[in-house]
Amino acid sequence: MSNSQTIGLVVLLGAVVVGRVIGERALQNLSAEQKTRYLDAFSALRKYSLLPLIAFVLFVFAFPGRLPSWAFVSGLLVYIVGYSILAIRKMRSIGLPRTYIQTYWIGQLTQIGGLLFYFAVFEGWVL
User: Fold this and answer.
1) What DSSP assignment string belongs to 3-47?
2) Could you read off the pLDDT of 28-60 as tens digits, one per residue?
3) Neighbour count for residue 114 (Cβ, 10 Å)
4) pLDDT higher for 123 or 33?
5) Nearest-CA neighbor of 95 among 19, 28, 41, 27?
6) Is 97 exposed, middle or buried (0-12, 13-18, 19+ CB in 10 A)?
7) What's the number of CA atoms in the CB half-sphere (13 Å) around residue 82?
8) What gap in Å lies between CA 12 and CA 116, rounded to an integer?
9) Treating both helix axes as pointing N-terminal to C-terminal, what angle do 98-123 and 69-93 enclose, rounded to 10 degrees?
10) How far apart are CA 91 and CA 46, in angstroms?
């Protein structure tokens, strides 16, 4: 792994951690009732949310070298953005505060930014 790819990986991991911290801090601002509604509403979604990602990864490994890197990253982005949109709709439907939803979205965008930066480094577009 080259130095630029190492930097890209560090930025990606940092973005994931920062995005998670943003989300966790926002979660701490919810009332006990809101947290309960949140956990109840997302129990089924959490159970099945990894199935599309697992199917996508299995597809990639089943056909090694046939999927260009841009298609792989595009698939990941579609999964992340799609899950985020479903989550935001669910949050709105259970009446979570707008500030929480906005903070959640900022955390997701931080993680997406890290992924895009890593992809750009991997492709040699930056650094």
Assistant:
1) HHHHHHHHHHHHHHHHHHHHHHHHHHTS-HHHHHHHHHHHHHHHH
2) 999 999 999 999 999 888 888 888 888 888 887
3) 22
4) 33
5) 41
6) middle
7) 11
8) 8
9) 180
10) 14
Mean per-residue pLDDT of the chain: 90
- The torsion region of residue 124 among left (phi > 0), alpha (psi -120 to 50) and beta comes to left
88: closest CA among 75, 76, 105? 105
One-letter amino acid for residue 59 of the chain: F
Can you give the pTM of this predicted structure? Answer: 0.83
